[in-house]
Amino acid sequence: MSMSLYMETEGQGPDLLLLHGWGLHGGVWDTLMPRLTPHLRITRLDLPGHGRSRAVAMPHSLTELALQTMAAVPPGTVVLGWSLGGLVALEAALRMPQRLRGLILADATPRFTTGEDWSCAMPPEQLREFAGGLAHDYQDTLQRFLSLQVRGDESARAALRELRESLFARGEPDTASLAVGLEILKDSDLRDRLRNVSLPTLVLAGGYDRLTPPGASEYLAAHIPDAKLEVFPKAAHAPFISHADAFAAAVLKFMKHTDRAVA
């Protein structure tokens, strides 16, 4: 059994790597793909324990996860990370900036859970509840997680349907890896290191996001030196599905900015 991460590449042009969120897989980007592949060479992979990388165990540290994720990626790639993928992308940008050309953080946050000095996040109890739910009914837990992702979005129903259809499209995830992924979400806090990000950065946020509230994206954009922020006012946590045209346009504009060769 191969222990390398499942990845697939399509399209032509400058390289863009797509990193999905917790509990999902690279298939979650299907809506976005035809909008990007005429202009870009897109690589999407399944994170450890997710989708077709189910047999690869999720490492226990964010650093290991970032190193493992970037190992097979061509140098000079722009990395776009969504949610948990955003945390991985951010860590990769901090650890190996020389391998990357730019960073796109979509509905991401430097810290997923609330703290005394951090309110724009999910209460730790809510994350614990998901962790508890994984043990006895992980399918229901994942479905509830998806519902939370679209709450408030003007296209919530259609976006939820698409997320649900995508959920098990690449097989069922490994529950042990899902649990480790939640631990990474619970324990990571990259706020103190944001000033060290040396790459051009685009921060994309849904104005109604309940999972990683827009305040977290505003914080990222304010503390990463070369960052621009774009908010999709009526989107929730998955604007690349619910507002795919606007999302793709923002990505392509940024890619053109970071590489004049984009047609």
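^ that was protein a. below is b, sequence first then the tokens
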Amino acid sequence: MTRLSLRSSTTALALIALAGTAWSADRTPSPPGAEVYFIGLADHAKVHSPLVVRFGLKGMGIAPAGVVMDNTGHHHLFVDTPLPADMSQPIPAVEGKVIHYGKGQTETELTLAPGEHTLQLLLGDAKHVPHEPPVASKKLTITVLK
């Protein structure tokens, strides 16, 4: 039977706690100048549904969720909802509101009801956590015509 001294047990527990804290607070860095944006869709555009929405990315690459590579991420589309207040946590999936493109998709077809809607992109790392600093698009307001 192996015996640990109180000192070594306390040190081990402190290291485990510190490692856990560092891991949960650790965010993937984004390179300076990285940008995510909508291709061919302008703020205040009047569109018809269904709508093809294309995602652009500058200064970084696309990698599917779960794939760890420097300077990469995958898209998340926020429809009629704000970006998360806590950017240190994984981006939640909310049906019809926060859509994950974890396979590395760079476009989608959206079916939206007639009226005004907002769209915004946020890049997530391999674990769906926003980068540091976050790579988010400008929020667009569009009007879907009847």
